[in-house]
Predict the structure.
Amino acid sequence: MKIAPSILSADFANLQRDVQLVENAGADLLHVDIMDGHFVPNLSFGPGIVSALRPITNLPLDVHLMVSDPEFWIPLFAQAGADTLLVHVEATPHIMRAIQQMHAHGVKAGVVLNPGTPLSALEELLPMLDQVLIMTVNPGFGGQQFLPAMADKVARLAKAREALGLHFAIEVDGGINAKTGKIVLDAGADIAVAGSYVYNGDPATQLATLQALR
Ligand SMILES: O=C(CO)[C@H](O)[C@H](O)COP(=O)(O)O
Ligand SMILES: [Fe+2]
């Protein structure tokens, strides 16, 4: 399982230092949470942060778009240097168009499901996807508690992927620590995002605990 530290819990006044800390400690991806104050009740970063991060790290940028009207933002975040864009199915009536748009802009296409959105929302989309992100908290804030029922959702998605012979990556986001990390690993997750667990302590030590699970 790959580990993607989320910079939402980093020290924003020392962002370069906090990115390099996790890169040097062997992080696999950098997770960047984009919140627009509309789709979720919080504001975080715009494309300028992604373009500022691009030259200071070799980590793939995994950009989680918690925004309304994602079709407007996809070109801007692709141009800013995202490697993967992750769009919520709840954010647009035209999710298939958003997936086509991500591929047309040369980035990996991911879709995200809120905890209350069933896997059936993915049925027509799965063959087009590079990544599926299962939210394990309700999006909008770091430091929330993992929702245990999401483990079974991950397991059912992994089973469906195998049955269909597909290869998209399964990612989880929210409330990941050493205990819940083991639960999602056993359920079949390929990528685990961790924000507060990594940054509310010594990032290298915290990351090592998650890396030891795999
Ligand atoms: O998308 C997110 C919140 O909407 C964050 O990626 C997620 O919450 C990470 O934070 P933590 O590991 O502290 O739960
Ligand atoms: Fe996220």
